[in-house]
Amino acid sequence: MAQRYGGKYSPKSNSQQRAQSDDGFAAARVDPVGARANLMFLPAFVLLVTAVFKGAIGLLLGLAGAGILSLGAWLLRGGLQAEAEYNARKVARRPAIPRKMMAAVLAGAGTALAALSHDSGIVAAVLYGVAAGSLHVAAFGIDPLKHKGMEDIDTFQQDRVARVVDEADATLKAMTDALRRVSDRQISDRMAQFQSTARKLIRSVEEDPRDLTAARKYLGVYLTGARDATTKFVDLYTQNPDAKVREDYMTLLNDLDRNFAARNEKLLLNEHSDLTVEIEVLRERLDREGVRLD
């Protein structure tokens, strides 16, 4: 019976390809900003150009309106990103700054100044501003106004969970940014799978923070080690694209991924007894790769 060759350089099987695609899809994140939000910078540019031909007062009003519209568009981008992070988590605080609502107010104020710069009356300018602000809210909505999933967690515990999640997400982002210097699709796919596994544990800690101290220590060792190993790999590989360096990094990612997946299963089963041993094993593994966490 004919068999598919399974050597080192042979094509991957369909099942392997599907597994990696599923992991990559699970880790993928759609940009929450989108074209609509980016287009909000366009009115500021148009106003800036047209105000040049409106005399001194019209120019000053146009410059002020363009600046306010640009600030509103920038705040809108931040508000959409904060809302996406809020929606992605089961436990989350409401955004500290209501950027989307501030953006709506600024859109109305900028539109009113634009109308004044083009010789509209005050009443007409106010009406234009109110209409623009209302349309902004209708198009982009408002910011989340309440915390989510924190009903049975005290305030101190809320802050601790939020810090753990923010630190973990920042470390994952740093790894993705570092790997942009290496144009390797297979490594990028493996990193996506790795981050998918990491985020599963992060969400498990969010949902059940009873052993937060131990889980935070484990997350710190695991993710800090992975970030430092990634930075070291990128520095070495960009200077000398050695296949051995690449293979060692992929092996390290595989080992850490398996350890983290196993820890997530144990957390789901409320098994916390051997965290200290696992942390020491991770430290020894990273030490062998030249990554120091002390």
Secondary-structure map:
Blueprint: H1 14-27, H2 34-38, H3 42-51, H4 55-88, H5 99-117, H6 122-140, H7 155-179, H8 185-207, H9 212-239, H10 243-268, H11 275-288
Helix pairs in contact: 1-8, 3-4, 4-5, 5-6, 7-8, 7-9, 8-10, 9-10, 9-11, 10-11
- The shape, in one word, is elongated
Beta-strand portion reads under 5%
Residue share in helix: over 70%
Taking pLDDT < 50 over at least 5 consecutive residues as the criterion, the unreliable ranges are 1-27
Question: What is the CA-CA span between the terminal residues?
Answer: 55 Å
pLDDT averaged over residues: 76
Note the main sheet. Answer: none
Question: Helix count?
Answer: 11
Order of helices and strands: HHHHHHHHHHH
Rg, alpha carbons: 25 Å
Structural class: mainly alpha
What's the number of extended β-strand segments? 0
What does this structure look like?
The protein has 11 helices and no strands. It has 294 residues and is mainly alpha-helical. Helix 1 crosses helix 8, helix 7 runs antiparallel to helix 8 (185-207) and helix 10 packs antiparallel against helix 11 (275-288). The protein is elongated, with a radius of gyration of 25 Å.
